[in-house]
Design goal:
The complex is a heterodimer of chains A (278) and B (185). Chain A is α+β, with helices and mostly antiparallel strands and 278 residues long. Chain A folds into two domains: 3-119, no CATH class; 168-276, Superoxide dismutase, copper/zinc binding domain (Immunoglobulin-like). Helix content of chain A is 38%, strand content 23%. Chain A is built from eight helices and eight strands, in the order H-H-H-H-H-H-H-H-E-E-E-E-E-E-E-E. An eight-stranded antiparallel β-sheet of chain A has the order 5-4-7-8-1-2-3-6, with helices on one face. Chain A is elongated, with a radius of gyration of 26 Å. Chain B has helices spanning 6-14, 18-40, 43-59, 71-90, 114-127, 132-143, 148-155, 162-184. In chain B, helix 2 packs antiparallel against helix 3, helix 2 (18-40) crosses helix 4 and helix 6 (132-143) packs across helix 8. The two termini of chain B are 31 Å apart. Classes of the chains: A alpha+beta (278), B mainly alpha (185). Chains A and B meet through helix 1, helix 3 and helix 4 of A and helix 2, helix 3, helix 4, helix 5 and helix 6 of B. The structure holds zinc ion. The site of zinc ion has 6 residues of chain A, from helix 3.
Chain lengths: 278, 185
């Protein structure tokens, strides 16, 4: 009994065919224009039907469970199968500061100054080498992070105490969050003092610097990054910088970001953003 | 501040950027979950489906091709396929025909998904103009993903005419939608 392949369109669309039947139908598709058109038509006509679903609140903690499961699976793969093809393109470690994450407004200038392809190429080269050491324990990182947050809060409180009322005034404060989701963390304060405005930035848990590398703070105004001081970190990964902000009247601070630069005091960012305010 | 669009986020996810995965997750969590829930009618299975989709996204199973339409359509198709596979696996006996076409039951507001809200309202208006049998056939075909044979059994419609009925129902829906959207202008 010969099956009319054209009758299988619906079952193909709904994944009801066996693997073999599916192959047969796909062969048929390549020679049957009518089926191709009907299939395309089905896809077009159903494209927006998912929006018929009424909004349902996902269960509590679903996000945490799913992301943990998905990323845990990744970690397992990292350690068990080295050097598979897939692994070459792996991965941001939470500790790796080489992750190709470009944050918000800096993206344009970064792309201009480096060029995405060359950049990714070196990325992959490094990742192959780094791959083995990057399977860090999520739990451990989370704990470390909590400690740092506590530390940071203490530092922040102490700054606020130092500021004497009447002479200085906190204009703006912002948490600087890691763009990699790792332990690094920071806090930015804009302090106005006798017509002088200072940007004070403190960071903790930053990755070690190499060679001439330096961290640099940026005030982002619209699409424009304005350099706000370079700094280094101590052995524990802590650092700070105070920067006198000129012309504050005409400045709109949209974001504050920390990049890793190949050298101190760059005029334009070349490295990736590691910390940024929301 | 400039936000990355879906395509940029997708590319970052291919480079295994966890922050990008999280951003995309936040954006689509509720839509994917609600869609999966509509298909399987069970919170746990719906969560499993969303997890499966996120895993596929992260592992790069199946590739999104920008030339073949919107990223969200691709993601939703992947969700539907995953749900169909689960429905087959569980092989539920009873069809749970949800009575969801009633107005005023749109649940909580969806801030980020304006498209969802707008499209959903228009679609619901349009689908309510279809005959009951046509609504049922759209439900069984699209949201249950049943085989022709099973749809025929459930509806007592001859097997050979199922494809025609499905296309007819969908075409009516399209015509209504064209009318709806026309009058909105
Ligand atoms: Zn055909």
């Amino acid at each position: 009994m010969s099956t009319n392949q054209c009758d299988r369109l619906i079952d193909y669309f709904n994944r009801q065919l066996t693997e073999k039947e599916q192959e047969q139908f796909e062969t048929h598709l390549s020679s049957c224009e009518e089926c191709r058109e009907e299939l395309m038509e089905l896809r077009e006509m159903t494209d927006d039907l998912p929006f018929l679903a009424d909004p349902v609140e996902p269960p509590e903690e679903m996000k945490k469970r799913i992301l943990t499961n998905v990323l845990k699976d990744e970690d397992k793969k990292d350690t068990s199968t080295k050097a598979s093809k897939e692994n070459v393109v792996v991965s941001t470690s939470r500790r790796s500061r080489k992750s190709p994450f470009i944050y918000g407004a800096l993206a344009a200038s970064l792309l201009l100054s480096v060029g995405i392809n060359g950049w990714l190429w070196t990325e992959n080269q490094q990742l192959v080498g780094e791959n083995e050491q990057i399977s860090s324990d999520f739990q451990e990182v989370a704990e470390e992070r909590n400690e740092l947050v506590t530390e940071l809060t203490a530092i922040r409180d102490s700054i606020e105490e130092d500021v004497q009322p009447g002479t200085s005034q906190v204009v703006l404060t912002a948490n600087l969050d890691s763009t990699l989701g790792d332990v690094s963390n920071g806090f930015a304060t804009l302090i106005s003092e006798q017509n002088q405005v200072q940007l004070v930035i403190q960071v903790a848990g930053m990755p070690e610097l190499e060679g001439t590398e330096a961290y640099q703070a940026w005030i982002i105004e619209g699409e424009t990054p304005i350099p706000a001081g370079s700094f280094e970190i101590d052995e524990a990964g802590n650092g700070a910088v105070a920067f006198n902000v000129q012309d504050i009247e005409n400045l709109n601070v949209d974001q504050i970001a920390i990049t890793l630069e190949p050298r101190p005091n760059n005029e334009l960012p070349e490295g990736e953003v590691l910390l940024a305010s929301q | 501040m400039a936000k990355m669009d879906d395509k940029q986020l997708y590319r970052r996810i291919q480079e295994h950027d966890q922050a990008a995965l999280e951003t995309l997750y936040d954006k689509y969590e509720k839509l994917l979950y609600s869609f999966a829930y509509k298909m399987v009618q069970d919170p746990q299975s719906a969560e499993e489906i969303v997890q499966e989709v996120v895993l596929k996204l992260w592992k790069g199973t199946g590739t999104y091709d920008e030339t073949k339409g919107k990223f969200s359509s691709w993601l939703l198709t992947m969700t539907r396929n995953t749900a169909i596979d689960m429905i087959r696996k569980q092989d539920k006996q009873e069809v749970h025909l949800s009575n969801e076409w009633e107005p005023g039951d749109s649940g909580p507001q969806v801030e980020d998904m304006i498209e969802w809200k707008e499209q959903g309202e228009t679609l619901k208006k349009a689908i309510r103009t279809l005959k009951k049998e046509q609504i049922e056939i759209v439900e069984l075909f699209y949201f249950k993903g049943y085989s022709q044979r099973k749809i025929a059994e459930k509806t007592n419609i001859p097997l050979g005419t199922i494809k025609g009925r499905i296309r007819l129902a969908l075409k009516h829906l399209r015509q209504e939608l064209a009318g709806e959207r026309g009058t909105q202008l």
